[in-house]
Design a protein that fits this description.
By secondary structure, this protein is an alpha+beta fold. The protein has one domain: Glutaredoxin. The protein contains five helices and ten strands. It has a five-stranded mixed sheet. Strands 1-10-7 form a three-stranded antiparallel sheet, covered by helices on one side. A two-stranded antiparallel sheet has the order 2-3. It is globular and about 40 Å long. The model has no long low-confidence stretch (mean pLDDT 96). Residues 9-161 form the Thioredoxin domain. This is Thioredoxin family protein. InterPro entries: AhpC/TSA, PRX-like1, Thioredoxin-like_sf, Thioredoxin_domain. Pfam families: AhpC-TSA.
């Protein structure tokens, strides 16, 4: 397992579109998940200890952001060949067990992860209502262990600011996680 950090936010970078199959049998495009005040596009998976440490907080924050007019989608781009926990069937199981409030989709070709420049799981891309990147930071101070309950909610607070002003915070702390498992590597 290789730990990676996300690059700094490229403010204003336009969100690439996609068309991906979800665990619910539907296909999702960017327009399907974007709220009036923005969208959170996240790259996660099932096996990564960094994701496991925050997945319940991701669900909480997506629920809270929806009330602010911010949509969300979770994309699994890993090659599940060597990581069977990331299989489509296991994606369906995890989404059901945790009652995901956002679509959970698979990027089998990994083209969407490449278009976004995703480097790790979790990797968060927060866009405003004009689909301009405003946040590329961490969820909170959790790493492989869950941070204390009273930890600052970096992602939620940043996306709340984006929903209210259209701009993300100038200071952002990178997300850290397991590297994307690219095909052929």
């Amino acid at each position: 397992m290789v730990s990676m950090e996300t690059p700094v936010c490229d403010f204003g970078w336009p969100a690439p579109d996609f068309d991906l199959p979800g665990v619910d049998g539907r296909r999702y495009r960017l327009a399907d998940v974007t709220g009036p005040n923005g969208v959170l596009v996240m790259f996660i998976c099932n096996h990564c200890p960094y994701v496991k440490a925050v997945i319940r907080r991701i669900v909480r924050d997506v629920d809270d952001l929806r009330a602010l007019g911010v949509g969300a989608i979770a994309i699994m781009a890993n090659d599940p060949t060597d990581y069977p926990e990331d299989s489509f069937a296991n994606m369906q199981r995890v989404a059901a067990e945790l009652a995901f409030p956002m679509p959970y989709v698979i990027d089998e070709s990994q083209a969407v992860a490449q278009a976004y420049g995703a480097v790790c799981t979790p990797d968060f891309f927060g866009f405003n209502g004009k689909l301009e990147l405003q946040y590329r930071g961490r969820l909170d101070e959790s790493r492989k262990e869950t941070a204390p309950e009273d930890a600052r909610r970096d992602l939620f607070e940043a996306m709340k600011q984006v929903a209210e002003t259209g701009r993300g915070p100038a200071g952002q702390i990178p997300s850290m996680g397991c590297s994307i498992k690219w095909r052929g590597e």
